[in-house]
Amino acid sequence: MRGFKELLSAALCIGLLAACAQRPEAPAVDLAAEAEAIESRSAEWLQLALARDAAGIANGMYAPDAVTMFDGNVSRGTAEIQARMEKEMAENPDSTLAWTTNSVQVAASGDLAYELGSWTFDPDGAGAKPGVTGEYVTVWKKMDGTWRAVADAGSANLPEAPAPATGG
What we know:
Elements: H1 2-22, H2 31-50, H3 54-60, E1 62-70, E2 73-76, H4 77-91, E3 96-106, E4 112-122, E5 132-143, E6 146-156
Parallel strand pairs: 1-6
Antiparallel strand pairs: 1-2, 3-4, 4-5, 5-6
């Protein structure tokens, strides 16, 4: 009987090992395609910004619990994000905005990524107020097959310091 139990145990172990070895691996994520998808979403977002569509941006680009942080202004959730954008658009009706994606890095899992880029903002378009440039980072999460921003932050570039005077 002892030999039968050992044989049965060995057979079960071999069966388990064979079952584990036959488990299909998850398909590899095409990271380049995912990065392109994020760049496409960013371009779509810019078109919504140019159309001054705060609701379209808040509800179409951001995750419901997203957070934005821009030069000291923090908004949490799409309702706050939309309200802040509508306020800024009302305060700057002639403003212009543009951004450029500099790089996108996608996690090996294919469901989380970050985008780095540069932006320009002119509060009065062709008016007398000077434009501002800055940098941003957007963290993207793939949710139900769609990339959505979960965190978005940016900062204006500081003006260049004057060159020190040389004495002579």
